[in-house]
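Take a sample.
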Amino acid sequence: MTVWQLARSRQWLGWLGLTVLVAIVCCALGTWQFARRAEAQAEIAKVEANYDREPVPLSQELAAVDAWDEQQEWTPVIAEGEYLVEDEMLVRNRPRAGRVGFEVLTPLRLQDGSVFIVNRGWVPSAGLNAAAEVPAPPAGEVAVVARLKPSEPQIAGRTDPEGTNQIATIRLDGIADRLGGDVHTGAYGQVVAERPAPAETAELAARPVLDEGPHLSYALQWFVFATLAFIGYGYLLRQEWRRVNADDPDERMRAEARRRKAASRRPSDAESEDALLDAVGR
């Protein structure tokens, strides 16, 4: 029986199909890791392009309340208006440095009458479903420098607690429904500075870490696994072919040649004794 005849048998066609399936799964996972790396690189590019830019007026970046382009993320803007403290919201379950807390969202009524949501920072939890004391924002007219961030998606299974000022996520459409009126739903602002400065501030967000993660190495590993699947299939097929053809004269000659070659690579007894004596002598 030739190796190709063995490979075309029902059993080995089944093993080949399984090998192909494993390789497809590995390649799909490798491709997914490449896509994740591309996403991380795109996020890093936005931070590098926008984070340290000079602030521009909010109206220059967001011409309408629903305006948003993902390339605007992290762009610093200046918004002037008055904080609506009575409509302040706390975003629940926001971890930071191993602690759980709340992010403080305070609506800012702009000079044109529209409302822009400002994330004034993070405060720790003071117990079950309760925040520590929230620093008061500046009263009256205020100029806010903030970096633009997109609206967050709805999280399945998480709802806003009724009868409180707490919300589950920064979903701007939901916040607009809650507040009513002309609310910016394209983006909100992550505060950088306020003028006049408040007496006390919440903990501000740190600069994003520019790290694309291990996605490249993971992707390459998955493609290596796909290659190893075929190598393993070929090795097992060859071993099975040798077993099936063990009585074939030609195969017996090849097997004997392999044994002689392996034996020639092993040191003789005399060489082993000399090596042992040398080791003892040292």
Notes: The radius of gyration is 33 Å. The chain has two domains: 1-51+211-266, 53-195. The mean pLDDT is 89.
